[in-house]
Design a protein that fits this description.
Radius of gyration: 33 Å
Low-confidence stretches: 341-346, 623-628
Distance between the termini: 59 Å
Number of helices: 34
Strand content: 5-15%
Largest sheet: 8 strands, parallel
Mean pLDDT: 88
Structural class: alpha/beta
Shape: globular
Helix content: 40-55%
Strand order of the largest sheet: 11-10-9-8-7-12-15-16
Length: about 850
C-alpha cells in the first residue's frame, strides 16, 4: 500500500493512516507536548519509541531541546521505514531503525546498561497508542516482550546483594551442598511436583506409585501431600522472603522424613529452624574461593528450576514433571486445589505487565503471565542444555507449556522399574565445629583483603583531589600515582573487585555517566568528580559487605556456643536467637543437651519453653503474610486496561473467571461492569448506560476507583446518547466529589458547549488557580474567551502560553487572528 503525507493548517506533514486527524486542532507540536512533555525530556535516558508519529516526534524533540546525554531509538515498521527515513532529522541523539534490527541497535546504544541504571523507557507513539495503523500493536507487543525480559534479567542481575546478604545469614546452615548426592540416583525415577492446575490430574497416580518414585515438591504443597499420605523425599524452597516461611509451614510435618533442599539464600527462619537433614544449592560465598568447590550451579530463579537442577545433579535417569505448567489452564486457573490461599485457587483475574498467549503440550493456545513465561524459558534452557546424556525429562501434563528439552508423555505411557523402592539417601557428615571454624577463617581472611582494598580506594580519592591545579592543568606525577593505585587494586584484589562492582553496579552506572559517548570532551572537574564518585561507591559497597561479614561472624560464634553444654553466656544465645527471629533453636539446644537443660534455672527453662511456643504461634500470628496476588479488587486494573484497548474478547473471557473467584460477595459487580463495557463496544449505549446506573445505585459496595471509572464511562456514554445532563452530572461528581484534575477541564468544556458559559469560565478559573502551568487547559479557556469575543482576555492567555513555550504555534496563530479581527472591526476614519 502506498502512503502519502497530508499537511494541516500549521504546516505539519503527517500520514493520515498513522495519526488520523490528531494534529489538526493544536498542531503536531502542541498535541505531542500534551502527551510527552512529562515523559520524553529526562536527562541521561534511553527512550525506545514504537513509531515516530509520521516523523513528528523527532521534530517536537528538536524544538523542545534534546536533553543532555539522552538517546532516542525510534522503531518503524518495514512498510513505513522508507517514507520516514527521508524526512528523519540528522542528529547524533536521534536514531531510526526497522522492526527487524531494533535489537541490535538497542544493544549498540547500551540498552542493558540503561536498564541496570533504571534509565531505559519504552514508549508508544500516539499513533501506536490509538492504533490507527494496525501494524503497530503487534510491533509494540514484540518489542515489549523483549524489553520486559531484558528488564527482568538486568534487574535480577544488577542488585544481587540482597541474596548475598541472606546467604551470609545462612552460612551457618550451608554446610552440605546438594552436590554430596551427585550421580547417586542413576536408573531411578524422580517426579517434580509443582502447584500448577495439572497436578490434580496426576496426584492419584503419584500416590499409587510413590514407593517407586523419588518425589520432589515445593513447600506450599506439603499440606496437600500430608492429607493424601504422600511423603516427599525432597522439599524444595528458594525464596528469601518471610512469606515462604509462613506459606510452607506444613513442610515441618515432614522434617524427619524429607530432606529440605534450599538455595543458599532461602528464608533463614525456615532453614535455621528445620530440624531434619537439609542441603543447599548454589555457592557458599559470593567470592571466588576454594571453600566453594562443592558448590552447585543455579540455572534459574524459581523453585521449579531449583528442583530440576537438583534432580539433574543427583543423576536421576527419568525426571517426570507434574503440576509444572508455567501457564494457565484453559479456564484460567494458575494453581492446583488445596495449595494455598483461596485467591490462588481462583482463575487469574488480574492483568500482567506483559501477559501473552502460548501453546501447551496438546496444541491449545492458553494465557500466561510474563513471570510464568520467563520462568518457563529458564526451565527449558536448563532442560535442554544441562541434563546429562543418560537423562530424560518428561511432562505428564498436556496442559503444561510446551518447552524445548521436555517431552510430553502421558502418565499411562510411563514405565517404572517396580523393583526399585525409593529409599532415603545417606549424607556423609563431618563435624559441625570444624565447618564453623573453617567459615570463621574464610571470613577473617577475606575481610582483611577488603580492608587493604578500602585503603587503596581511599588513597586514590585523595590523589584525585590533586590531579588538576586551579587552572585545570593535569599533574602527570599524580596521574602516575593514581594509575599505580588502580593497577594495585586490579592485580591484588581482582576477584573481590569484581564482586564489589557487581554489587554496586547500579550506583556506579547512575553516577559515572557510564553511557556517555564523548568522555574525551569531559572537563577536568567532570573527570575528577567521576573518578571520585566511582571510588566512593566502591568504599560504600565494601562497607556493606563488611557489615554482613561481621554479622555472619557473630552468628557463627553463637552457633559454636550452641554446640556446648555450658555456653559462655546463655543470655547471649537467647539474644542471638531472638535477634534472628529463630526461637526454635532454643528447643534444638534443649534436645542436644538434656542434662544441661535440667541444670538451668527455672527462669531459663521457662524462657526456652516460651521460645518454642513462640515458634508454634508464629504461623498463626502471621497468616496475613501469606495473602497472595489475584484478589478481586486487583481485577479492576485489568478491566480498565482491557476497556482502554477496546478488547471485547478478553473482557468476555474474564467473566467466567470472575464467576469462579472465591470472593463472590464482590465478584458480581465486576461481572456486571464487564457486561456494561461489552454492551458499549457492541454500540448498545442505552443498555450500557442503564447498567452503569444500576451499578452506581450500589455505590456502598464499590471501591472509589471503581466508582470513578463507572462515572467516566457514564459521561462518555451519555454524550453519545446526547444526554448532556447526565454527562455533566457525572463529570461534576468526578471534579468536585473526587477532586479529579483530569476531569475538571472536560467538565468545564462540556458546560460551555451546553450553553453554561459563566459556570464554565468559573470552573476553568478555579482549576487554573492551582494548575498554573497547564498549557493545554489555558489554551482551552483562551479559545472559549475568543469565541465569546473577549479578545483582550483571550490574547493575554495566549501570550502567557507563549511566554512558557514560544514554539506553541496555535497560540501565536490565535493572536494573529485576534489582531486581524480587531483591525477589521475598527471604524473607518
Amino acid at each position: 500500500m502506498e502512503y502519502y503525507f497530508t499537511a494541516n493548517n500549521y504546516g505539519d506533514r503527517y500520514l493520515q493512516e498513522v495519526n488520523g486527524n490528531s494534529f489538526n486542532k493544536l498542531g503536531a507540536y502542541g498535541f505531542l507536548s500534551e502527551h510527552f512533555d512529562n515523559i520524553l525530556l529526562k536527562k541521561e535516558h534511553l527512550y525506545i519509541i514504537v513509531g515516530t508519529d509520521s516523523g513528528q516526534i523527532p521534530l517536537y524533540l528538536l524544538k523542545k531541546g534534546i536533553p543532555t546525554e539522552s538517546e532516542y531509538l525510534f522503531i518503524e515498521t518495514s512498510e513505513l521505514y522508507g517514507k520516514i527515513k527521508k524526512i528523519f532529522p540528522d542528529h547524533p541523539q536521534l536514531h531510526l531503525c526497522q522492526e527487524h534490527d531494533w535489537l541490535q541497535q538497542s544493544e549498540e546504544l547500551g540498552l542493558p546498561l540503561y536498564i541496570q541504571s533504571q534509565s531505559a523507557i519504552l514508549v508508544r507513539s500516539t499513533g501506536a497508542s490509538y492504533s490507527y495503523y494496525k501494524e503497530y500493536p503487534p510491533l509494540f507487543e514484540a518489542v515489549n516482550q523483549h524489553y520486559q525480559s531484558a528488564s527482568a534479567g538486568a534487574s535480577a542481575n544488577s542488585n544481587p546483594f540482597h541474596f548475598y546478604k541472606v546467604g551470609f545469614t545462612n552460612l551457618t546452615e550451608n554446610q552440605y551442598n546438594v552436590s554430596v548426592l551427585e550421580d547417586q540416583f542413576k536408573d531411578k525415577t524422580a517426579v517434580l511436583i509443582g502447584a500448577a492446575p495439572s497436578l490434580d490430574q496426576h496426584i492419584e497416580w503419584i500416590q499409587k506409585n510413590q514407593e517407586h518414585l523419588y518425589i520432589f515438591t515445593v513447600s506450599r504443597l506439603a499440606q496437600k501431600l500430608h492429607n493424601l499420605n504422600i511423603i516427599p523425599n525432597f522439599i524444595v524452597t528458594v525464596d528469601p522472603e518471610i512469606g515462604s516461611f509462613y506459606l510452607g509451614k506444613e513442610a515441618f510435618k515432614f522434617e524427619q522424613q524429607s530432606i529440605l533442599i534450599h538455595s543458599y539464600h532461602s528464608n533463614p527462619q525456615l532453614v535455621s529452624q528445620w530440624s531434619g537433614e537439609h542441603l543447599f544449592t548454589g555457592f557458599r560465598y559470593p567470592w571466588k574461593t576454594d571453600a566453594n568447590d562443592d558448590g552447585s550451579e543455579q540455572t534459574g530463579s524459581t523453585v521449579s528450576n531449583a528442583a530440576l537442577d537438583s534432580a539433574i545433579t543427583m543423576g536421576f535417569s527419568q525426571i517426570l514433571l507434574a503440576g509444572v505448567d508455567f501457564c494457565f489452564d484453559s479456564k484460567g486457573y494458575t494453581h492446583a486445589s488445596d495449595t494455598g490461599a483461596a485467591v490462588s485457587q481462583a482463575p487469574m483475574v488480574v492483568a500482567d505487565t506483559a501477559d501473552k498467549l502460548v501453546t501447551n503440550n496438546i496444541g491449545e493456545i492458553v494465557e500466561t503471565t510474563f513471570a510464568f513465561s520467563t520462568a518457563g524459558e529458564e526451565f527449558a534452557r536448563t532442560a535442554s542444555t544441562h541434563k546429562k546424556a543418560h537423562q530424560t525429562i518428561s511432562n505428564l501434563s498436556g496442559s503444561a507449556l510446551k518447552m524445548r528439552g521436555v517431552e510430553y508423555i502421558p502418565k499411562e505411557q510411563i514405565t517404572l522399574d517396580t523393583s526399585i523402592i525409593a529409599s532415603r539417601p545417606e549424607i556423609l557428615k563431618s563435624p559441625q565445629q570444624k565447618y564453623l571454624q573453617t567459615c570463621l577463617k574464610e571470613l577473617k581472611q577475606t575481610n582483611g583483603q577488603f580492608l587493604q582494598m578500602d585503603k587503596l580506594c581511599q588513597s586514590t580519592i585523595q590523589e584525585n583531589k590533586r590531579l588538576f591545579d586551579k587552572d585545570g592543568d593535569k599533574n602527570t606525577k599524580v596521574e602516575g600515582k593514581i594509575i599505580k593505585l588502580e593497577k594495585s587494586i586490579e592485580k591484588k584484589h581482582k576477584a573481590l573487585l569484581h564482586l564489589i562492582k557487581r554489587i554496586g553496579q547500579r550506583e556506579i552506572l547512575k553516577h559515572l555517566h557510564a553511557t556517555r559517548k564523548d568522555q574525551e570532551l569531559w572537563t577536568h572537574k567532570e573527570v575528577t568528580s567521576s573518578s571520585t564518585s566511582y571510588y566512593k561507591i566502591l568504599r560504600e559497597t565494601i562497607k556493606l559487605v563488611q557489615i554482613s561479614i561481621k554479622d555472619a561472624t557473630q552468628r557463627i560464634q553463637s552457633r559454636q556456643q550452641e554446640l556446648l553444654a555450658k555456653p559462655k553466656s546463655f543470655s547471649a544465645l537467647i539474644e542471638q536467637w531472638e535477634g534472628d527471629k529463630q526461637p526454635r533453636r532454643a528447643l534444638f539446644w534443649k534436645q542436644s543437651h538434656p542434662e544441661a537443660y535440667m541444670r538451668l534455672s527455672t527462669e531459663q527453662q521457662e524462657k526456652i519453653n516460651e521460645m518454642n511456643k513462640e515458634f508454634i504461634h508464629s504461623f498463626e500470628a502471621n497468616l496475613a503474610e501469606t495473602i497472595e496476588h489475584n484478589t478481586i479488587g486487583e481485577a479492576l486494573s485489568n478491566i480498565i486496561n482491557l476497556a482502554n484497548n477496546y478488547n471485547k474478547n478478553r473482557l468476555k473471557q474474564l467473566i467466567p473467571k470472575l464467576e469462579e473467584h472465591p470472593d463472590q460477595e464482590a465478584a458480581p459487580y465486576y461481572i456486571v461492569l464487564c457486561e456494561a463495557l461489552i454492551a458499549e463496544f457492541d454500540e448498545k449505549d442505552q443498555d450500557a448506560f442503564n447498567t452503569y446506573a444500576t451499578l452506581l445505585s450500589h455505590q456502598k459496595q464499590l471501591t472509589e476507583e471503581m466508582t470513578c471509572f463507572i462515572l467516566e464511562r457514564v459521561s462518555t456514554t451519555s454524550i453519545r446518547l446526547k444526554d448532556y445532563n447526565n454527562a455533566i452530572f457525572a463529570l461534576q461528581t468526578l471534579s468536585e466529589a473526587y477532586e479529579s484534575d483530569y476531569h475538571t477541564p472536560i467538565y468545564a468544556e462540556l458546560l460551555y458547549l451546553t450553553g453554561n458559559t459563566k459556570p464554565a469560565i468559573d470552573v476553568f478559573d478555579k482549576y487554573l488557580e492551582k494548575n498554573t502551568q497547564d498549557i493545554k487547559t489555558i489554551f482551552r479557556l483562551a479559545d472559549l474567551q475568543l469565541k465569546e469575543k473577549k479578545y483582550d482576555a483571550a490574547k493575554e492567555l495566549y501570550q502567557h502560553i507563549l511566554s512558557q513555550d514560544s514554539n506553541y504555534l496555535p497560540a501565536q496563530q490565535r493572536i494573529n487572528e485576534i489582531e486581524g479581527s480587531t483591525k477589521t472591526e475598527e471604524p473607518s476614519p
